[in-house]
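Structure first, sequence second, as always.
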């Protein structure tokens, strides 16, 4: 059982769909990114403030498994949980169609921090997310 620590309800917009009437695969990266950003904001973490402190968090790798397509107007829940692997923060993210709770997407997003221009562990984020790791 996944241990979700954050969930965000969203809705598919018409322009996110391709000719087949389903969400274009690239938009799922936007959904997962928006969920991560909202998770960070919910825990008092601002990308702009981190950058001003010399900390830049970046995606190192994404693995996405597409299960069931979303269509225009459908609502969905984007859920995540977090783990640590060395210096990486690994976001495990699932998207479920709201109407029937079917798994739409399963993703693993590996992120790293560049601290003062160098790939490094980020003590500030380690402390912020200690309860989840």
């Amino acid at each position: 059982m996944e241990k979700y620590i954050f969930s965000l309800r969203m809705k598919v917009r018409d322009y996110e769909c391709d000719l087949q009437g389903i969400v274009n695969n690239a938009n799922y990266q936007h959904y997962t990114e928006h969920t991560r950003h909202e998770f960070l904001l919910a825990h008092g973490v601002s990308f702009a403030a981190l950058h001003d402190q010399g900390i830049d968090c970046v995606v190192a790798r994404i693995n996405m498994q597409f299960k069931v397509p979303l269509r225009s107007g459908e609502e969905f829940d984007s859920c995540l949980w977090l783990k640590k692997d060395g210096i990486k923060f690994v976001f495990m993210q699932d998207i479920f169609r709201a109407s029937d709770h079917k798994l739409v997407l399963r993703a693993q997003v590996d992120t790293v921090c560049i601290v003062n221009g160098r790939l490094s562990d980020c003590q500030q984020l380690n402390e912020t997310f200690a309860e989840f790791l």
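Margin note: The chain has a mean pLDDT of 93.
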